[in-house]
Amino acid sequence: MAHLRTCITKMAVWSRLACLGSVSRGHRTLSIFSSSSPSNWTKVVSDAEKIVGYPTSFMSLRCLLSDELSNVAMHVRKLVGTKHPLLNTARGFVYDSKHNLQMRGLVVLLMSKAAGPSSTTPDALLPDMVSGIYPSQRNLAEITELIHTAFLVHRGIVNLKDWTFSDGPLKEMQFGNKMAILSGDFLLANACTGLAQLNNTKVVELISSAIGDLVQGVYHENSSSTEEGSLSLASWEDQTFLSHGALLAKSCQAAMELARHNTEAQMLAYQYGKHLALGHTLNLDLQPFLKSSSDPTVFSLESAPVVFHRLIVGPERWLHQLQQSQSTTKQTDYSKLQRLIKTEQGVSQAADLCSYHGNKALEAIRLFPPSEARSALENIASAVMKF
Amino acid sequence: MAAPWRVYRSRSGAVSGFVRAVWTGRTGAAAEEGLYEAEVLVPVRPVRNAVRPNSFTRYRNRFLYPTPRICCCRIHSDTKLKDPFSLVQKDLQNLYEDIKKLLVSKAELKALCDYYFDGKGKAFRPMIVVLMARACNIHSNRQGDLLPAQRSIAMISEMIHTASLVHDDVIDGSDTRRGKTTINEVWGERKAILAGDFILSAASMALARIGNNAVVSVLSQVVEDLVRGEFMQLGSKENENERFKHYLEKTFKKTASLIANSCKAVSILVNSDPEVHEIAYQYGRNVGIAFQLVDDVLDFTSCANHLGKPSAADLKLGLATGPVLFACQQFPELHAMIMRRFGSDGDVDRAWRYVLQSDGVEQTNYLAQRYCQEAIRQISRLRPSTERDALIRLTELVLSRDK
User: What SUPFAM superfamilies does the annotation carry (chain A) (predicted)?
Assistant: First the structure.
C-alpha cells in the first residue's frame, strides 16, 4: 500500500512536470516524432496494442518510478524557462506516450507474436507465453524502448560553448546537461542489465551493436549540411538507417533469436524492422510539406525532402535559395523555402521512397504465416505509406 | 567523544580507532547471491596510540606477511617478489591497440573514442584483472596462462572505466584529464557523451562475444553501479552516520564495483567454485575501495597537476570525501559546509584548511590500509603463486602511490 502511494506520488511529479514543460516555449524541440501524425496511425497503433495483451510501457514505467529518475523529475523543474531540450524530452515521457514513443516496443511484440513459438520449442516452455509472446520477448521490447528513450535524452545535450543568453542562465543549462547525461546513462544501464537477464549472448551482442549504430547515427545528425561533398541518396539512407532503423531492425531480429527461430525468420524480421523504420522516418519528414500552405511549419534542413531537393538543384542553387528565403535578420522564412522546395521533385521523390520502404516491409511480413499480429504489422506498414 | 555509529568494539586490540559494523546494504553481485553481509570498517575517533601512523609515509613491508591463521598465506620463499607491472607487461602489450580495434567507427567519432587509449594510462584495472586471472588459473590447477576471454575482460574493464571517465568529465565540467585537454573541452559536451556511449556499446559487444551469460551479467552490474554511484553523489546526507555509509557505498559503486566484478568475471571463466569467485570479488572490492580512499586523500595532499587534475577538485565539486568526513568529527563547523556542498564564498578554502589541521588525511589513509589488509586476507586463500603474491604487493602500491 505504502509502495503504491509512493508510486502515485512519483507519477504526480511526472505529470506536473509535463504541465510545466508545456508552459515553457522550449525552442530546440526534439522533433523525432511530430505530434501531428495522422489519426489513422493512432488507430492502427491502438488496435495493435490490444493484440499483444498489455501496453508496452511497463519497463519505462518502472524506470520512471525509480528513485533516480523521480529525482531528476524534481530537478528538471528548475529548467522551466530555459531552452534546455531535456524539458521537452521529459514532457514527451508523459504526453507522447500515445504517440509512437512506444512504437518500437509494440512492433517487437507484434513480430514476436506473428512468428509464434519455433518448431523446436519444447512444449514445456509454451505455458510461459502470454498472448503468444515469451516473457523474454516482452523484456526485449521494453529494453528497445529504454535504449530509444536514452538516446532521445542524450540527443538533447547542449554544447555549452554555443550557449547564448537567450537559452537561459548558463548555470541552468549546465544543470540540464548533467540531468540529461545521468538519466540517459541510467536508462542505458537498465537496458544493459535487462539484456544480461535475457541469458542469450547473441541477443546481447546484436542489441549492443544496435546501440553502437544509434550512437553513430546520432553523432552525424546535423552534420551533412556542412559536408556538402558527401551528400547523396545512399549516404542519406545509410545515415537514417543508423539513427532511426538499426535499433528496430535488430530488435525484431533479436525477438526471433529469443524464440530460437532460424536465420531466415531472423532476416525477415530484420528487413521488416529496417524498412518500416525508414518508411516511418520518411513519412514524418514529409508531414510539413503536405499540410496546407497557410500553416507555416518549421522543418529540418536535414529532412528527406530537403536533402533530396538539395541533390536535385545542386549546392550553388541551394545556397542561393537559402539566401533568398532569409530575411536581413538571418531568420529563415520557412514558408518561402517550402514553396521553393515544392517547385522541384524532392517531395515526390521522398514520397516514392517512402512507398518503396513501406512495400518492402509488407513484402517481408507477408512471408510469415497469416495471423492477427501479422495483419496488425501489415496495417502499420500500410499506414506508413499514407499521408 | 564516542562516535554515534559504534556497533561493537573490534576484538583485535591492535585495531584501535576502528570498529567493525555490519553493513546490511546490498553490495553488488555478491549480495545478490546472498553470500555474505558486507562488512564495512567504520571509523571512530582514534585513540592516539602507537598504532596510529604518525606521518603520511606508508609502511613498506607491513602487509607482506599476513597473519598465520590464514592458510596458504606464506609468500613463495623461492621466488623473489616481482613487480606487478613487469609481471603483466607481456599480457598487456598491445592492449590499447586491441581496444582501438574494437572501436569501429567513422572519421571523427573514431578519433574521440581513441583519445584516451593512447597508451599513457596506468592500465591499473587491466593489471589487476590479468594478475587475478593468472592467480585463479594456477589455483584451478591450470597453467598460469591467460585465457583469451580473460584478456578480453581486461580490455573491457579499461573500456568501461574510460567510458565512465568521459561522462564524468562532462558532468563535472573538467577541462583536463591525465594532462590532456578533455574530450568535452575539445569537441563539446554532446559529442563527448556520444563517444562515451559508443565505447560502452563496443565494450558490451566484446563482452557478449565471450559467450558466457554469467560473465555478461556480472559486468552489466558494473554499468548500473556506476550510474547509481553518480546519482548518489548528487545528494548529501544530514545524518553523519548515514553520510559515512553513503560515502563508502558510493565509493564501492563508482570505483570498486568495476574492479570487484572484473576480478569475479575472470575467476568465473576458469573455475566453477563460487568460493573462488567470492575471493576474487572481495579482493577487488577491498582494493577498489582502498584505491579510491587514497585517491580522495591525494586530492588534498598532492600538488596541482601531479594527479592530472587540480587539487581540492572534489571540494570544488561540492563533494565531501573521506578526509572531510573525518575532519568533521573534529571540526563540527564543517557540517554546515558539507550540507551546502561548499557553495558559499570561501567554503572550499576553509574546508581545505580544516581538513589539513585535522587528522582526516591520516584516518582516511588508515582506513585504506584496513581495506588492503582485508584484500590480502581474501587473496591469501588462493593457492600461492607469483601472481597471487603480486596482488598482495599491489595493495602496497595502492597505498603508497602519490599520483
Answer: Terpenoid synthases
Average pLDDT over residues B341-362: 91
The reply to whether residue B217 touches residue A197, judged by beta carbons under 8 angstroms, is yes
Between residues 165 and 184 of chain A, which touch chain B (CB distance below 8 Å)?
174, 177-178, 181-182, 184
ipTM over cut 0.95 = no
- Residue B129 confidence class, pLDDT cut points 50, 70, 90: very high
Give the pLDDT mean for B249-274: 96
Which residue type does B67 have? T
User: Between A2 and A61, whose confidence is greater?
Assistant: A61
Residue A15 contacts B where some CB pair is shorter than 8 Å:
no
**C-alpha to C-alpha distance for A264 and A223, rounded to whole angstroms:** 36
Q: Which residue has the higher pLDDT, A351 or B235?
A: A351
Q: Beta-carbon neighbour count of residue A294 at 10 Å?
A: 6
Chain A touched by B269 (CB under 8 Å): no
- pLDDT one-digit tens code per residue, A357-386: 999 999 999 999 999 999 999 999 999 998
Which set of grid coordinates corresponds to residue A367?
512471408
The pLDDT value given to residue A185: 94
Q: What is the 3-state secondary structure (H, E, C) of chain B?
A: CCCCCCCEECCCCCCCCEEEEECCCCCHHHHHCCCCCCEEEEECCCCCCCCCCCCCCCCCCCCCCCCCCCCCCCCCCCCCCCCHHHHHHHHHCCHHHHHHHHCCCCHHHHHHHHCCCCCCCCCHHHHHHHHHHHHHHHHCCCCCCCCHHHHHHHHHHHHHHHHHHHHHHHHHCCCEECCEECHHHHHCHHHHHHHHHHHHHHHHHHHHHHCCHHHHHHHHHHHHHHHHHHHHCCCCCCCHHHHHHHHHHHHHHHHHHHHHHHHHHHHHCCCCCHHHHHHHHHHHHHHHHHHHHHHHHHHHHCCCCCCCCCCCHHHHCCCCCHHHHHHHHHCCHHHHHHHCCCCCCCHHHHHHHHHHHCCHHHHHHHHHHHHHHHHHHHHCCCCCCHHHHHHHHHHHHHHHCCC
First to last CA, chain B: 34
Of A68, A205, A216, the CB nearest to B205: A205
Q: Which domains does chain B have, with CATH numbers?
A: 5-400 (1.10.600.10)
**Is the confidence at residue B310, as pLDDT, over 70?**
no
Secondary structure of chain A: what % helix, strand, coil (to 5)? 75, 0, 25
Residues 6+ apart with CB under 8 A from A135: A128
Residue with the three cell numbers 585513540: B47
> Nearest Cβ partner of A160 from B189, B193, B224?
B189
Q: In chain A, which residues have their Cβ closer than 8 Å to the Cβ of B227?
A: 68, 182, 185-186, 189
Domain that holds residue A311: 2-384
- Which of A199-213, B108-122, B182-196 shows the lowest per-residue confidence on average (mean pLDDT)? B108-122
Q: Tens digit of pLDDT for each residue in A219-255?
A: 988 665 545 556 788 888 999 999 999 999 999 999 9
* Predicted pLDDT of residue A344: 86
Neighbours of A296 (CB within 10 A): 12
Rounded Cα gap, residues B134 and A193, in angstroms: 28
CATH number at residue A229: 1.10.600.10
Digit-coded pLDDT (tens) for A305-335 = 999 998 888 888 888 888 888 876 777 788 8
- A127: distance to nearest CA of chain B, Å? 24
Whole-model pTM over 0.90:
no
Decide if A176 contacts A21 (C-beta within 8 A).
no
Q: Work out the minimum CA distance from A340 to partner chain B, whole angstroms.
A: 33
Cell for A306?
530537403
pLDDT of res. A6 = 62
Find out whether A194 and A142 touch, Cβ atoms under 8 Å. Answer: yes
Number of structural domains found in chain A: 1
